[in-house]
Amino acid sequence: MTNHEESPQIKLVPFKVESLQTQTHEIPYGVSMHQAPEIWEQGEKGKDVVIAVCDTGIDTKHPDLKDNIIGGRNFTPEGWGHDQFEDLNGHGTHVAGTISANGKIKGVAPESKILACKVLDRHGSGNYWSIIEGIRYATNWRGANGERVRIINMSLGGGVNDKKLEQAILDACSKGIVVVVASGNESTDTGIHESFETSYPALYNECITVGACDENKKIAYFSNEHLQVDVTGAGVDVLSTYPSQTYARLSGTSMATPHISGIIALLIKMGENKFRRELTESEIFGMLTKVCCSLGYKASIEGNGIPELTRFFEEC
What we know:
Layout: E1 9-12, E2 16-21, H1 29-33, H2 36-40, E3 50-55, E4 69-74, H3 91-100, E5 113-118, E6 125-127, H4 128-140, E7 149-154, E8 156-157, H5 163-174, E9 178-182, E10 208-213, E11 229-234, E12 238-242, E13 246-251, H6 253-275, H7 281-290, E14 292-293, H8 299-302, E15 306-307, H9 312-315
Parallel strand pairs: 3-5, 3-7, 4-5, 7-9, 9-10, 10-11
Antiparallel strand pairs: 1-6, 1-8, 2-13, 12-13, 14-15
Helix pairs in contact: 3-6, 4-5, 6-7
């Protein structure tokens, strides 16, 4: 491809808005199910770990998010410039809240920081050019105090195996960044598939690909099955932040993915405190798999299972 006009299209992984609400004060079930509060009690909340959210932007005025947004850029035609990354869809704000909300609700890593990479417009649509540029920006970004991105979260997908997209992901991984992506929501009958669903970047081996389960740890009927599923996160009826200072319950592997990004932020802090050095991307993935518990499904459905963070103290 030579420019964004010629780039194939990519869209949000489909998701469902279950409900909207203006007030809340609770810890979402997925945060508890993955045992984040137990880690907070140990004094670890992911302080200053930077996660790039490549999505529809973020509501920068949301009281549960605004203090944890460290910066961002707009890679879509929507808006007035590179520094305009407001969310006109809702998806990106919801994803960011599951990672890093720190107000009336809590994300998995409430002291982590969000770098907003607006790569999709208000319709949840974009192109491979914008995604690639967003990944490159996140990979090379440096904060005012030398901060750098440790995790890239992408709840999006397309049907094209684009080598430039894969190379951008490889470049990120080579610099120690963990790339976390949604497996997709094209499944309709979990467990009896005769063929696997196809979606990129979920099928790239370099990514950590996330499937979805519900509050009872049952795999969501929509969660894609394929050989690159690595792990399962809470993804059904997930409460998180939403634009206009509201909250919403959404369902999809899009919602499972930021749970895993927040978990990785906590694991990075715990692992590097324990080993007193910076961990590699492969070491971080290894820690993630060690804290997983099987849900009793095939690996092509659940991957390594669901992370339970307190297992860190036993397994790592």
